Amino acid sequence: MSNRRNFLKFTALGTLLATGLYPVERAFATTLKKSRINKPLVISTWNHGLPANEAAWAILSKGGSALDAVEAGVMVPEADPQVRTVGYGGYPDREGKVTLDACIMDKDSNCGAVAFLEHIKHPIAVARKVMEETPHVMLVGEGALAFALSQGFEKENLLTPESEQDWKNWLIESKYQPVINIENHDTIGMLALDEEGNLAGACTTSGASYKMHGRVGDSPIIGAGLYVDNEVGAATATGLGEAVIRTVGSHLVVELMRQGNAPEKACRLAVERIIKKHKDVSNLQVGFIALNKQGEYGGYCIHSGFDYAVRDKVGASLLDGKSKY
Ligand code: SD4
Q1: For a tag on the chain, would you pick the N or C end, based on fewer CB atoms within 10 A?
Q2: Is the same domain home to 101 and 91?
Q3: Are 284 and 173 part of one and the same domain?
Q4: What is the tens place of the pLDDT at every residue in 152-170?
């Protein structure tokens, strides 16, 4: 565990050095932005958010839309086999199948989602097609796959040799016991505020490793894994989806911001609600990030070890999400 954290700190430091940005400068920029809206800006969960944010920033910095930015951003970890909990190379379910969940939401409350989708490397792009090309919000399983193929997506094998070997090792004991933060390259949830002041969000994952075949988490569920209200702000979740669904977590965070809470406080209050609803949270991790219309952002989680990436005009950084424990 401590090795993993040290590795992450090292990785994060390398990134900060590479971008020339230190936390103190970030703190100064945060103070500055109180007086004016900090836009454009993108935030996303975990350290795989750093390269994902850069892809989003390439669009935002040229005046592109938050919607295009979040889609392009999360496609980076979706395509990266080293990211073992999103898209291609993601851990399979207990039957050795990689099944993907994703959703996307725009400034006009349009949204699209796919769940339990196999064989498609970019579920977020299919979710966007569901939003734009169908009268529905969510397609699942074989129906989602048939729709993706009809839209020109290619059928691919998403199970890499590494993920297959890990699954075979897991089969020896076949014990489903998620360990918090253990991969630390979890679901990617991304929120963006564009130059026009509009918000959008995207969330994509291969879900909990070795889940039951057919299990769907929070990530494709609008309101649970992601929520955007262009009048107020946006939020997204990572961690154990069942706990997020029970509290409709991301919607809760946005509603808490609507009541006047700053993003970090809204995330904390939602985390406290989850803690209150569970007898034992020692093995339960949930983290939220949130962004409001002013370009203020924050994150909060149950257990330390969750971080999130930020990209704005100041530069790129990886911040530790504050935690209850
Ligand atoms: C899920 N929230 O499927 C996702 C995956 C995740 O820690 O973030 N796992 O439950």
Answers
A1: N
A2: yes
A3: yes
A4: 999 999 999 999 999 999 9
